[in-house]
Amino acid sequence: MNAIADYRTFPLISPLASAASFAGGVSVTWADGRISPFHNLWLRDNCPCGDCVYEVTREQVFLVADVPEDIQVQAVTIGDDGRLVVQWDDGHASAYHPGWLRAHAYDAQSLAEREAARPHKHRWMQGLSLPVYDHGAVMQDDDTLLEWLLAVRDVGLTQLHGVPTEPGALIPLAKRISFIRESNFGVLFDVRSKADADSNAYTAFNLPLHTDLPTRELQPGLQFLHCLVNDATGGNSTFVDGFAIAEALRIEAPAAYRLLCETPVEFRNKDRHSDYRCTAPVIPLDSSGEVREIRLANFLRAPFQMDAQRMPDYYLAYRRFIQMTREPRFCFTRRLEAGQLWCFDNRRVLHARDAFDPASGDRHFQGCYVDRDELLSRILVLQR
Amino acid sequence: MNAIADYRTFPLISPLASAASFAGGVSVTWADGRISPFHNLWLRDNCPCGDCVYEVTREQVFLVADVPEDIQVQAVTIGDDGRLVVQWDDGHASAYHPGWLRAHAYDAQSLAEREAARPHKHRWMQGLSLPVYDHGAVMQDDDTLLEWLLAVRDVGLTQLHGVPTEPGALIPLAKRISFIRESNFGVLFDVRSKADADSNAYTAFNLPLHTDLPTRELQPGLQFLHCLVNDATGGNSTFVDGFAIAEALRIEAPAAYRLLCETPVEFRNKDRHSDYRCTAPVIPLDSSGEVREIRLANFLRAPFQMDAQRMPDYYLAYRRFIQMTREPRFCFTRRLEAGQLWCFDNRRVLHARDAFDPASGDRHFQGCYVDRDELLSRILVLQR
Predict the structure, then answer these.
(1) Is B218 in contact with B373 (CB distance < 8 Å)?
(2) Disulfide engineering: A191 pairs with which of A250, A365, B48, B120, CB 3.0-4.6 Å?
């Protein structure tokens, strides 16, 4: 009964004081007075014993559909080691560590506590104090790595200095997090002016504030932009916090905000070899009504299709959002120099590039993507 | 005024018969009698001229936020070549091909027509007539490739025969579509029984019907499973169409269906090096209320957390769905032999493996993923 289906440890917040069964479950009272109900199927489902969980993978082999729906508790006690011990009417027995049990309790108070402990995004405007880290420290020291990754997660815009200016230097850095997310532009993409460009990114044009690849069902989570050479005139980078703009829009123009949250529009990325399309709102919300991400790249947008009645108002909302991305109160502008890189949350922070003059000097950036899943996994492993 | 921001061609469905401006837009009447309104900002936004669209990338350089909100039409005519020609009050002029314009019209009838033309999923049960293709034909012939990919998209379960039994043979096949989606299990993963398994997939256990990686925000779209050797006793593959089961559940137990659509639950994939978590419903719906995908892998599930009130009913709904995946009416079972492979829609079709006896003979499969975006892009390019 030792296997626990997790790699984390669960500190003892409060010991179990008493436990009693009720019709359909077990109610426990903790030493600090909290009362948590656990239903029989939940308890049976989460039995951590070596017959129910395969110790090598820590994955469940028991399936809750394989016991009777009305499985009953024959006896419930608190063991000498503080565990909750349940004896089932089919002969099976389960024991739950009180630290684990408290971390998974679903009484209203426990749920609210866990909700409140979720990481919060720090919204920012033009006065952002940019988190900057040293490349060597990030490569060698796990504490610095974790600090950087938390800034990427919560602030969404970071810079690294002291990066080697060799092409490909991004690869070992990205791998400090995990594997790189490939796209049709490659594993690494070279951002420079090209005669046969397959994206406006590969021209010398200015690029309006945008997220990369809103044309994909899952926009890339993190974007890296590494400066190898920047001797050309122009080409400054501007960033805005899309979450801050969405929040300002929600307050200043609630009807426009709702239109952008609720109206799916199509984005397209097409060249001679590919034809990507994705239909989603500019401001998608999650199931609790929070802004999940921003999707916006005007140059990758298909003609709007929606009820003709809605079209004029939608255009006003769309224009307003774009105009807000240009307001100085939101804009953070810097010139990236050789040996520096940006790492930002591509699903939250919009980025822009001023036009540059390719005749005035060389300009060569390399970029790549790593998804949010890999970032969050790496953070959890570093925090174990 | 020749650049068109697309690589598709748009056949002339019906010529333009007349055009007249109204307050805020232009109304066109087609030769077949349909009437389509187009608003001024929509028309200006979609101007296909070489100043508004960069011809090399076919991406927009014009930004609709850069013209006055009340931009006016000075004159609208139908040109000798059949195009709609708009003269704007700021001096710009735009001309729209009638085939393109009809394909993007947003009057109610045009929208309904386009909605009805979207590809439909063919739901299936145990009597499925399995689409089988020859590996050599798929590799060499684009028509066969397209036929196979349409079956993957619409049926969701296909088989290829005549596949070389060398390790890595999947790579050139997957690249007939696009690049491979990597995961923490690698670009290719080897499915065989391992002593130090980091997933129950790499044991000889039976695996209940599941989707791969519901622990990621975007579950992998297509899964390939390529059989190199299958000399072991047991290990048959079973598939069910998750969309067919969801539809049956919706009819047979609507309250259970709604609980599975509306209740986010957590999935977890954890080992010594990673810790992936994703919270989403088992049956996520899209914005029009259609089933978008199925997310289910019992062995990758975290303890349920939800209002205690809801827990007992949720368990009944979850058990019912799992019990339905086992009903013979839904199950399609086959043994895969060396030189054959499965390619299926991992976000729709659940797959299972019977336990096998590793002492009875060798069993070695290789697998990889390609995302739905890449599948749909490849289909659109092949259909150009």
Answers:
(1) no
(2) A365
